[in-house]
Amino acid sequence: xxxxxxxxxxxxxxxxxxxxxxxxxxxxxxxxxxxxxxxxxxxxxxxxxxxxxxxxxxxxxxxxxxxxxxxxxxxxxxxxxxxxxxxxxxxxxxxxxxxxxxxxxxxxxxxxxxxxxxxxxxxxxxxxxxxxxxxxxxxxxxxxxxxxxxxxxxxxxxxxxxxxxxxxxxxxxxxxxxxxxxxxxxxxxxxxxxxxxxxxxxxxxxxxxxxxxxxxxxxxxxxxxxxxxxxxxxxxxxxxxxxxxx
Length: 246
Known about the structure:
Residues 2-116 form the FAM69 protein-kinase domain. Residues 1-19 form the signal peptide. By secondary structure, the chain is an alpha+beta fold. 30% of the residues lie in helices and 23% in strands. The protein has a 5-stranded antiparallel β-sheet with strand order 7-11-9-10-8.
């Protein structure tokens, strides 16, 4: 969410009515999240000036660990230097820390492609935004899910119930530090996640959703202490419930 919002902001800056705007003091502390969107808190160091040049050798974009040769345009400006400076700063301050860690396994190669392409400045802001929107579409639609044996049949579902909230086993990347709370596309995906975790014996799906509209599922190591909840469904492994009275 943070990276996509940043890319949308940089897309606007690259195509603003004033021309391509560069953020000269590009630091994480210069941004804040407002209603799920990244905003710039300080525009004092923003500029529409692009570096003047006479030849291509005048257009080297330098960073502490990398340098990029750019082209000198016919009007004597280094082509796309403001856009590229913003994009590489997004890569080194945001993408490298946030992109590799929390996506479903099937989407990680696509995010690695974005990471590598922006790190080498092979992508401009237009290509980067398209790549992010493709990943978002796959994520929201569930098209990233690979066809696997149906596992939900191995679970008993009880509508109108959930387990008592409390500290349970933890997983990554959980929305809660008290247990294992993950976003899912469907109950079938939740069943696959539960099957992959040795501690998991049940999971609960409620009406709570993430910013992408995906429901949240809480994965539990037990299924006892059920309480009524009209907005929830608890799924219990048949193997865990055998011999027990529901």
